[in-house]
Amino acid sequence: KMMSDSTVPTLPEYAGNPFIAMLPPLRSQKDFLQALKKAPVFDEKERSYPAFIRKHCIARLSNAFLPQARQVDLAERVDLLLRQGYVGRNPLKHDYLNHLHNGIERIEAGSLDAPTVSPVQNTARSFALLGCPGVGKTLAMNCVLGLYPQVINHAHPFRLKQIVWLRLEAPALGSLKQLCIDFFDAIDRLIGTDYVKRYATHVGVEQMLPSMAQIAHIHALGALVIDEIQHLLANRSKNSDEMLNFFVTLVNIYSLPIVMVGTPKAIQ
C-alpha cells in the first residue's frame, strides 16, 4: 500500500534532526520504483516519419531508465546509509559540535589519528557496488543520487549548506593528494567556496587529509561516493593502500558514510 507524505511515520531516531528532516520522506519499494523510472517519450504518429527522423527518436532510449529489483535495492541501501549516517551528527545535539571540535584538534595536530577529548557516536555505514563494465553501475548510482537534493540551504536555527552527497572518481595512480584536491574542487564548484585555494595550495597531504574530513563535517556530507575504485588495485602501490586505509578512517573515526563503485577487479 502506498503512503502519502503525511502518513509516513517518523522514527524516533530520525525525529528532531534537521539534516534528516530536509531529506525526501521515507519511500516504499514501489515508491522507489516509480521515482527511478524514466520512460522515453513516444508518439505513435512518429512511426510514419522518414527514417532519418526516426533515428533521432530511437536515440531517446539512451535517456530511458527502467529500474529492476537490484536498482530498487540500491536505492533502499543508499537511503538507509544517508539517514543512519546523520543519526550520529544531529546539529541540535552535541554530536555535530563534538565532531567539529575533534576535527579542529586533528587539524592542529596535523594527524588523522590524533587523540581527541570529545566523545562521538558513530552511526556511519559503507558498502561497495561492484559489477562488470557497461552493466550500468554508474548510471544506476546517478539515478539513485538524483532522488535527493545535492545541496540543502539551512537558514534556521543555523546557517549551513548541507551537502547530501558527493561523487568522485578514484585517482588513477592512487594519489591521496589528488583525491583531496578533487574533493575540494568538487565542493568549490558545487557551492562557490574557495577550499582549493585555502586548503590545497602549497600544503602537504598530511595537512590536507584532516582538512578534507573537517570540511565534510562542516557541510554535513551525507555520503561520499568513490567511483572507479578498481583504479587503486590495478596500480597496487603504497599510495593505493594509504587511500584505502583513509576511506576506512573516514567511516570508522570520522563517521562519514562511503560508497565504493567499481568493477570485479576491486573484489579483493
Which keywords apply here?
11 helices, alpha/beta, single chain, two-stranded antiparallel ribbon, 268 residues, four-stranded parallel beta sheet, 6 strands, globular
Overall pLDDT metric: 89
Structural class: alpha/beta
What is the CA-CA span between the terminal residues? 41 Å
Estimated radius of gyration: 21 Å
How many beta-strand segments? 6
Strand content: 5-15%
Helix count equals 11
Percent of residues in helical segments?
Answer: 40-55%
In the predicted model, the low-confidence regions spanning at least 5 consecutive residues are none
Give the overall shape: globular
Task: Give a short account of the largest sheet.
Answer: 4 strands, parallel
**Going across the major beta sheet, what is the strand order?**
1-6-5-4
- Please trace the helix and strand order, writing H or E for each element: HHHHHEHEEEHHHEHHE
Write structural notes for this entry.
This protein has 268 residues and is α/β, with parallel strands linked by helices. 44% of the residues lie in helices and 10% in strands. The protein has helices spanning 18-21, 29-36, 51-58, 69-87, 94-109, 137-145, 176-191, 195-199, 205-218, 230-234, 238-252, and strands at residues 126-130, 151-154, 160-163, 165-169, 223-227, 258-262. The protein has a 4-stranded parallel sheet with strand order 1-6-5-4, with helices on both faces. It has a two-stranded antiparallel sheet with strand order 2-3. The longest helix has 19 residues, at 69-87. The protein is globular and about 70 Å long.
